[in-house]
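At this stage, I needed to go through a protein sequence along with its fold in token form, as given directly below:
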Amino acid sequence: MEEVTKIDFIGAFKKRTKQFVIDNIKLFQSLPKSEEARIIGRQLLRSSSSVGANYRAACRARSKAEFHAKLSIVVEEADESLFWMEILIDAEIISAQQIEPLMKEATEILKVVASARKKVSPVKK
């Protein structure tokens, strides 16, 4: 029964990280058409899309070490996504209110994946 729950969680989290990417694409599309908004927006697109892609890759990992490495990338990219969101706010390109739900989701994804990564230690040499 526990295995079914684990499989359900993995599937749901794949969908969640995919939706995170889609939501960031929609945010990018709504940004002002200024050069700085496009530059920061592209950085956010790269990091947020890496969250979804690398979580998916982690689910296909061939070893514990590979799984740990892919989860580490997801942690880094989720944190980078938060950084670019903060820049968008601090540079007054977008209001905190507009981006708050995405920031909340990035933070939750980061917490879940960081916790999972702690539970899976890479193979020791």
Summary: DSSP finds four helices and no strands in the chain. Residues 23 and 103 are 11 Å apart (CA to CA). The helical segments are 2-30, 35-59, 64-90, 96-119. The mean pLDDT is 93.
